[in-house]
Amino acid sequence: MKRDQSPVLPGSGATDYARYMRTDALLDLQRSPAEMIHRDELLFQVVHQSAELWLKLAAAELTEATARVGAGDPAVAEALLARATLAVRLITDQLEMFRHLSPVDFQAMQPALGNGSGAESPGWRQVQAASRQLGRAFADCLADRGIPATALCPADPADPVHRLAEAMVEWDERVSLWRTRHYQVALRVGGHAPAGTPGSPATMLAKLVGHRFFPDLWQARLQPAADDSGAAKP
C-alpha cells in the first residue's frame, strides 16, 4: 500500500521537506527575473547567500568550541573547529563560480548592488568575533595548565591541547586562503586596481590576507624547540 506522504509538520509548504527546510522562503530570497537588471544577479546572490549560511554554521561551531575549551574539553573543541574549517573551505571553493562572471557583466549588474560591500557581511563579523573569543579561551586554558605557547611546537599528537592548537592554526590558514581567493576574484571580476593603488578596495583585501587570529601559535613555530633544561635542541 502507498504510504501516506501528507505533511505533519506545522508551517507552509506542500511537503514536510518544504516545511522543515522552509524552501518557499529560502527560494524567494533571490531577486525575481522582473527585478533583475542582469541575469547573473542570481549567480551572485546564490554564491553570497550560501556563504552567509556556511559562515553562520562556522560561527556556531566556533562558539560551541569556545564553550568546550572553557569546560576543559579540548578534544571536542577540536572536532567542532574542524567543522568550522570545512565550512570556510567550502565557501572558498564556491568562489570558482565567479569564473563564469565576466568583468563586463559584473559592471552591468553593479547598480543593483548599491553601495554594498562584502566587508558588511554579518556572517563574517560573527566569525571574527567568535574566533577572537576562541583565542581568549585557549589562552586562558594554557595559562591554567601552565603551558607556554612555545611548548606547543612541535605538537604532541597524544595531547588534546596540542591537537586543538594545530586545529586553530589550520583554521587561520583556511581563512587566509579564502581571503586570498577573494582578493583574486576582486581583481579578476571586480576590475579593481591592484593592491597598493590609492583608493583601491583590493588594497584592503590584500592587507587582510596576512591577518592571523592566533598569532602566538604561529610565532611558536618560529621558536627553536627546547629540551627540559630550557636549552635549545640542536
What does this entry look like structurally?
The protein is mostly helical and about 230 residues long. It has nine helices and no strands. Helix 7 packs antiparallel against helix 8 (about 200-210). The protein is flat. The model is unreliable at about 225-234 (pLDDT under 50).
Note the gap between the termini.
76 Å
Extract low-pLDDT stretches. 225-234
Radius of gyration from CA coordinates: 22 Å
* Mean pLDDT across residues: 89
Q: Give the topology string: H per helix, E per strand.
A: HHHHHHHHH
Report the principal-axis shape: flat
Structural class: mainly alpha
Largest sheet: none
Q: Compute the number of strand runs.
A: 0
Helix content, binned percent: 55-70%
Beta-strand percentage?
A: under 5%
How many distinct helices? 9
What are its keywords?
disordered C terminus, mainly alpha, flat, 234 residues, 9 helices
Element layout with pairings:
Layout (H helix, E strand, L loop, with lengths): L15 H6 L1 H4 L14 H30 L3 H20 L9 H7 L12 H24 L14 H29 L12 H9 L5 H6 L14
Task: Write a concise synopsis of the structure shown.
The chain is mostly helical.
